[in-house]
């Protein structure tokens, strides 16, 4: 059974700092890995999708890497802003198009 | 609309009642997914549709849960004889096709069972 773990569970940083969120998964037989953002009371917003054959994806200040063989991914956020405050979720897609999610990292960026 | 729409946004009901949750996917998206988000369980997959067919129902927690999709568009998730442990946020997502596509989520229905 696929299990996804995210570290840390919570993170508080001053504005402007670069930061890294970590995600690990137990079964390397994945189609892709996705990073989402969730704001309180809202649904999930897709940030980045990395195909299993890819090593990284970039969007603006976000960069996500994938090491499928070791079961790890990182989300790098450059020059963090208060608007980045949210819960960040990592999910892997396995057979049957289902996503298995981690518990999330709650990020607070302080002005 | 531009995004995935779910209704109602909030639902409070008494234990033992049936509830119906609705999801309108993004126009043109053939795949539709239901997830449940609850404290202590995180986000868990319930069921997905490709067109009107549900190839994988294994995530449904009990036979009190059912879902259907008509016309390749709107989907309803029905919970019969609700229990307090059914209290959660039910999220719907859609994607252009099946597999390896970004999933776009609605804001969810917050279900509270008294």
Assess the beta-strand content of chain B as a share of residues.
Answer: over 45%
Radius of gyration of chain B: 13 Å
Counted by DSSP, the helix tally of chain A is: 0
* Separation of the first and last Cα atoms of chain A: 41 Å
Counted beta strands of chain B: 11
Question: What is the element string of chain B, with H for helices and E for strands?
Answer: EEEEEEEEEEE
**Biggest sheet layout of chain B:** 7 strands, mixed
Share in helix of chain B: under 10%
For the largest interface, the chains and their residue counts are: A-B, 24 and 25 residues
Low-confidence residue ranges of chain A: none
Mean pLDDT of chain A: 94
Mean pLDDT across every amino acid position of chain B: 93
Instruction: Please state the structural category of chain B.
Output: mainly beta
Radius of gyration of chain A: 13 Å
Structure description:
The complex is a heterodimer of chains A (111) and B (114). Helix content of chain A is 0%, strand content 58%. Chain A has strands spanning 4-7, 10-14, 19-25, 32-38, 44-51, 56-59, 62-67, 72-77, 86-93, 99-101, 105-110. In chain A, the strands form 2 sheets. In chain A, strands 2, 4, 5, 9, 10 and 11 form a 6-stranded mixed sheet that branches. Chain B has strands spanning 5-7, 10-13, 19-24, 31-38, 42-50, 53-56, 65-69, 75-79, 88-95, 104-105, 109-113. By secondary structure, chain B is mostly beta strands. In chain B, strands 2, 4, 5, 6, 9, 10 and 11 form a 7-stranded mixed sheet that branches. In chain B, strands 1-3-8-7 form a 4-stranded antiparallel sheet, with no helix packed on it. In chain B, a hairpin with an 8-residue loop joins β9 and β10 (104-105). Helix content of chain B is 0%, strand content 52%. The model of chain B has no long low-confidence stretch (mean pLDDT 93). Chain B has no helices and 11 strands. Classes of the chains: A mainly beta (111), B mainly beta (114). At the A-B interface, β4, β5, β9 and β10 of A face β4, β5 and β10 of B.
